[in-house]
Amino acid sequence: MDFLSYTFMRRALIAGNMVGVIAPLVGVFLNLRRLSLIGHTLSHVALAGVAIGLFIGVFPLYMALIISIIAALAIEKLRKDYQDYAELSLAIILAAGLGLATILISAARQSAGIHSYLFGSISLVGTRDIYMILPLAFIILAVIIKYYYGFFYLAFNENEARLAGVPVKALNIVFMVVVALTISLAIRVVGTLLIASLITIPVAAGMQLAWSFKSTIWLSLIYSLIAVNSGLIYSFYYDLAPGGTIIITGVLLLLATMLIKYLYQKFFRPR
Amino acid sequence: MALLELKNINFSYQQEKAVENVRLSIEEGDFVAFIGPNGSGKSTLLKLILGYLTPDKGEILWQGQPASDVMDWSSIGYISQQVKEFNQSFPATVREIVGSNLYNKMGFIKFLNSSLEEKIAQALKLVDMEGFMRRKIGNLSGGQQQRVFIARLMVNDPDLIILDEPLVGLDIKAQDDFYRIIGEIKEKYNKTIIMVSHDIQVISRHANRVVCFEEGQVYSHRAREFSYDDYMYDLRQTNLRIIPRHEH
Ligand SMILES: Nc1ncnc2c1ncn2[C@@H]1O[C@H](COP(=O)(O)OP(=O)(O)OP(=O)(O)O)[C@@H](O)[C@H]1O
Ligand SMILES: [Mg+2]
Q1: Suppose A234 and one of A37, A187, A245, B119 were both cysteines; which one would form an S-S bond, judging by CB atoms 3.0 to 4.6 Å apart?
Q2: What ipTM was reported for this prediction?
Q3: Can you give the pTM of this predicted structure?
């Protein structure tokens, strides 16, 4: 446990665990609503935010936060107004975000810093990041707990939620902001390229074994925290980018779960 | 005063008229059957009543007041024509599905408490599904899922129940069970029900009023005097709006 004696590693673990809690929580709802493309899109938009920040000299994560919230609200509007073209509009926003990011990064000429925003970084998690991640992660957690069954209903049947008294329009907007915040907070730990995977992979693993909605959430959370913590520790000892080690751990956990489930069904279930 | 009154409702999708000058009034305790060919505007009229669509012309009154102003939507229980089209691998239990409809009755934090759990148990008992509380919704048969959706609607103690072709895909036994449960709901709670069905023979045995649809227009009848011949007769009429058939 000698890694705990390093301040930067303690900070990375705090940030990583906060993100490791909120990412699968948001991910369960996002994936079940079949909106996971929104995660991909917002992470590329967030990268544009990072690039703008680097370019004009503002803390990149603040810029990522602002830009991805704006994009999330725009996506929600497009999703409602042009239902038939929802996917196309996501693809366009994704392309615009990535294009803009590329231009700004190449124009800035000192692109050394960008590496950590693409793949995550444990040594660069600073106190400023912790002060940003902690309160926002708690707010996200509180919002999801408060509106738990509202988000559940939106995921199961968005159309009928209104008849149960769920404030559909408002909750949809809240949800999109929560997704944007989660993505921005995860940049430091896993990097923009792999955020969408952190939102998806633990949930996919959790759903393999789940027997209810609640258990889906708890299992996804457990998978996510195992992946984040072991990923960060590998990253520390082998000096690798944490984004990759976290996601690969997650993928291995998913594959192992699928294999165990398959073997169990093949050999232990009475026919 | 009528529970629900439709006054000269008109509605078109793009150019095509789907509902034309419909007048209809539904009393508390009515069991109204909607019948009519595919595309005659049954589901559209229901969506207008449910507030999913807004009439181009005309007015919908709920206990004499404009529905758009006074309606508490959770007082309507609805099973849509697409109810079975949900993601069958959705990881939720029967308890969670039925419980989610109690959203309005949950406290500041939207979770289920023990008094709500009791309501869920009662609703499932009504449809003989109390043993299925912890089963995944996707692992149930079509008929069992249908009963869960009836429980989901009943858990809210609705004033009006709207069922859009709830019998599609159910076998004879499940259809019998369905009518037995609906009969019980009517008898015990005297709920007002609107139900779309294509089986004129069966539905007119259960409903007390039959409303025939033809190209967006409606003809209303007392069920007891209503027969298949009347239905065919209606389909040949085009100018009449409402025929008080029993007066002929
Ligand atoms: N979303 C829509 N956009 C455009 N036109 C529609 C839409 N929904 C229905 N229509 C049209 O409105 C008319 C009435 O449709 P509706 O679904 O109300 O019929 P229905 O009586 O419920 O038929 P069915 O028995 O097949 O369910 C049809 O001509 C249909 O093509
Ligand atoms: Mg229909």
Answers
A1: A245
A2: 0.90
A3: 0.91
